[in-house]
Amino acid sequence: MSRTVLIVEDEFDFADVVALNLRRAGFETVAVRSGEAGVTEARHRKPDLVLLDLMLPDIMGTEVCRRLKSDPATRGIPVIMVTARGEEIDRVVGFELGADDYVVKPISMRELVLRVNAVLRRMSQVPGEIETASMTVGPLRVDGSSHRTFVDEQEVGLTALEFRLLVVLLTRRGRVLSREALLDQVWGLQAEVETRTVDTMMKRLRDKLAAAGRYLETVRGVGYRFSDQD
Ligand code: CA
User: Fold this and answer.
1) What percent of the chain is modeled with pLDDT above 90?
2) CA 56 / ligand 1 centre spacing (Å)
3) What is the residue range of 14's domain?
């Protein structure tokens, strides 16, 4: 069964080229030209992935993303935010809203298809690993089945990527993981995202985990590990 990508994009030319290239790569595509239509279509059609333009004629792509990720019916659908150079918002904002990846136009169609495949691969692989991870370390408790995180029994709101980052480190407790390995295992990307992205997210994750943040150790010149000390 082929997978469907919903393209939410008001630039017709760009949407057509993207659709053509995705169909060549074996996907089915549906294209809509406004944010409201994007939300409706995502609920109705349950696509495997949404390519979401930032600047839309009615509502911002960030708002569309927020709505999709806060609705249980569409929360699980991965979203790749698409922006044009010059209208770039902080990519952290995109990730904070739960976007699964972030690309900037102009982008080669080859890379775009790679990114779509990487996100889908990531979605299909790691859930199994995450489901089984219900672990407690000191004040930190991670519930893999509900994707919830607690520190001293207070729930901590993590984005999907932050949660993955934590689980990937936690399930390999005591082992050092390089930034490249984390990019591969958390983001499902090789060289396409800068390794600095890992540092930024690690800092946010540490801040959010407060008392449990100390478990996330930086290993200078190598990468990160989840401490094996209680
Ligand atoms: Ca646009």
Assistant:
1) 45
2) 5
3) 4-125
